[in-house]
Write a structure and sequence with these properties.
Elements: H1 3-50, E1 61-65, H2 71-80, H3 87-97, E2 105-109, H4 115-124, E3 133-136, H5 143-153, H6 158-165, H7 168-177, E4 203-206, H8 213-228, H9 232-237, H10 242-255, H11 259-274, H12 282-289, H13 325-332, E5 341-344, E6 350-353, H14 356-366
Antiparallel strand pairs: 1-2, 3-4, 5-6
EC number: 4.2.2.29
Organism: Filobacillus milosensis
Membrane topology: Single-pass membrane protein
Amino acid sequence: MSSNDQFNLKKQRIKEASTARKIIVTILTLIIITIGVASYQAYTYISEGLSPADPNDNEIIEVEIPLGSGVSSIGQLLEEKNIINDARIFKYYIKFKNETGFQAGEYKLSKSMTLDEIIESLKTGKILVDPIFNVTIPEGTTIEQIAEIYGKETSIDEKEFIEKMNDDEYISSLISLYPNLLSENILAEDIRYPLEGYLYPATYPFYEKNPTIEHVVEMMLQETADRILTYRQDMVNQELSVHEAITMASLIEEEAVSEEDRYMIAGVFYNRIEAGMPLQTDPTVLYALGEHKDRVLYKDLEVESPYNTYINRGLPIGPIANFRENAMKAALYPEDHEYYYFVAGYDGEVYYAETNAEHEANIREHRPPQD
């Protein structure tokens, strides 16, 4: 081979090597770009999956997590409700954090919540979204007073609320909805308001600006059910129906201020019932009159009403107000004593007596007539 041929061969090899290097560099570049794009897409996908569905949307979405739901089904449900961006990311994130103990139930969530906030809510059963406003219903309030409170604090019309409380069709639907709490007793002809005493006193959070009457009523009934139905066996032990127990608790709420006196006055009431004596409690007279008065007059005691415990023996036809839980406890676990009378003195103390003579003496000493 001549020197010229050797030169040309060497030149050709150098050219081929250069071409090969360019091809390798091009391939490597393409691989790097592909990996980079894939990594970016993966990062974006995961980042979006971990981020709130909409950080600016605080609208409350109600979600019911069925009993026995697994992580996958919960994630799918939340994705369908647009509360999270991706059910798979939700599932893997939970596994990564080793989270467990999710509770079934109804939740109020929003698109602005982070995954950690959603997980915490599902674990604790607590609502982590701040309410728009709260409404406080004090103990000892009547249906008419509750209507007035909602009329002032919400968009609910007071008169419409009262009308709803006398809507037999609606009340019947509630009896079907809460069969362990409500009975046909509340539909008795002379009952003033079927739900009197059944709307529990508490501070209620609201997550929408214009709640409906139905939402308000059912929220309060559920609170009553949650608080009171745990005492069902105690009611059976006392031979009381739920309606009778709530009625007794409402009387105790209106008569006694201190917790100690609630148990004592409950004992007085049961002693009088057992002895066949009328309860003779003034709050039932005021309820029968349908007005608030600082003093109950003798003529008031004669008002014809199934609520008046001066002219009727036993419990009145129904509750006269709502009540605190300790009033229910007093109704179910009354103090065992021999007292049949009590009077609240002007000094704030309650004085008890076994006989009417002792009772009259307590009245003269601790609650004498005032000019």
